[in-house]
Amino acid sequence: MTVPGSTTGGPVLLRGGAVLGADGDPVRADVLVADAVIRALGPDLDAPVDAPVDAHVIDCDGRLVLPGFVDAHSHAGSLVFDEGVQLALLRQGVTTIVTGQDGVGPAPGDGSYADTYFAAIDGPHPSYRGGGVHGLLATYDGTTPINVATLVPAGTVRHQVMGDDPGPADSAQLAAMRELVRDGLADGAVGLATGLDYVPGLFADTAELTALCTEVAAVDGLYVSHMRGGYEGNARAGLDEIAAIVRGSGVRAHVSHLHAPVDLAVTALAALEAEGAPMSFDAYPYSRGCTILSMLLLPTALARPGTEDLAHAIADDGGRAAVRAAVLDRVLSRADLGTGWAEQITLSHVPAAEFHALQGRTLADAAEATGTDPVDLALDVLVDSALQVTAVMRVPRPRTADDLAPLFRLPGHTAGSDGIFVGTHPHPRAYGTFARYLQDFARTGLLTWREASRHLSTTAVERLGLGRRGTVAVGAVADLVVVDPDRLAARSSYDEPMRPAEGIDDVLVAGVPVLVDGGLTHATPGAGLRRRPGRIDHEQGAAGTGGR
């Protein structure tokens, strides 16, 4: 699809829609966009007299014009070049993603660590082979319709310096890690991310994390943490550790995919704010989770990426029996699994050809179909797939929209999909989080449209320092989505997880239409969003295409 003005950044007039007024109610207003920003708002605007005859006009009658949504926890950074992923994001209204999550990402280094350990979550980056955060962000300039910001992944930093050494960092190693964090922030990263259930992030103690966060605090970046030890049964301990890091470093903090009992989460976050450690967090409107199967099942010593430790450990009957016992001890002790664990784990991505057909089946069902035991099947699947297996997990106490609304109303909440696009049976959150949020919360009145717009866009922009976006106002970067409240629907489900959302058919990034009538325009105005001291760089990048 070719759209007038789509590659030149020419004027675009969004005509006949509504924006949210000062009181939050929809107000009829046209929106005039030119040179990447909103130039005018008001009724019955005309295109500028000097606009080219093919200036683009989008009929927005009956629809809302909202700021582009920010996926505050995305795993699409290496896959955002794929048109299927682009369409899945844009059909939900996502115009910016934040990557480097859970402490793992391509930079620093040459990308090989992330490609090995998180291949089943992030997928391999098609072009990054080094150059740090600067080199990574450059891969997004003018190559995609989506903006990409990144965090410095602390697990990757530790791996660069210490490999998978489980010991504490000595002074020289800590100094080297701090230097890598400083370099990443100077190159434009918006903060630091940890994954404290993943190797080697789980080996970092609170003192190490506090030292790294001192570098983040020095530039007013954000510390983003997948908390230590799980969420359902250990959320308070994880939040307490983050609070200790905040007090020790002065950093601002954010909790990744907060998935805890709502009453506990609300109470704990309020208590921490009262203590002077206010936190933001991202959360998605689904009960089930998704992660790599090795983290769920294996003892840490066997879950190291890029090794054959597991294959060696189960090579004889005695070794297999010992590993089986360790797996059972692990799953039966988890508050989010426990008895019946094999029925609660669905295989999402299994690259091994022999087991590929098991994607979409629970471990219990797959074991019965193959005439084996769930533990033995899981071990064989992991070995044959070099540990690159993801799984969707049910939880014992699913939460309804009414249950989640108090959590989503908290001022620190941002929307983050934690979406994984790898595999043939991914979690539906990758294709439906933002549409489901609007469908189940804004359209039903559990949240106002203003609250929804703030949580899906503005709060993340402010917390992460993503520049002059996140509002529909004159002078703001024209990342905009046009929402039809009546048609809005998340169509992805656990049975059919890859169905795109409906109700958002027109999206602009930097004033350029990237989705029109529900289809990609193939324009690529997206950019690597680079942090500068105290702000995000809004100017065009070195290639003339990005860096806003």
TrEMBL record:
Residues 522-548 are annotated as: Disordered. SUPFAM superfamilies: Composite domain of metallo-dependent hydrolases, Metallo-dependent hydrolases. It holds the Pfam family Amidohydro_3. Residues 57-514 form the Amidohydrolase domain. Signal peptide: none annotated. It comes from the Bacteria. This is Amidohydrolase family protein.
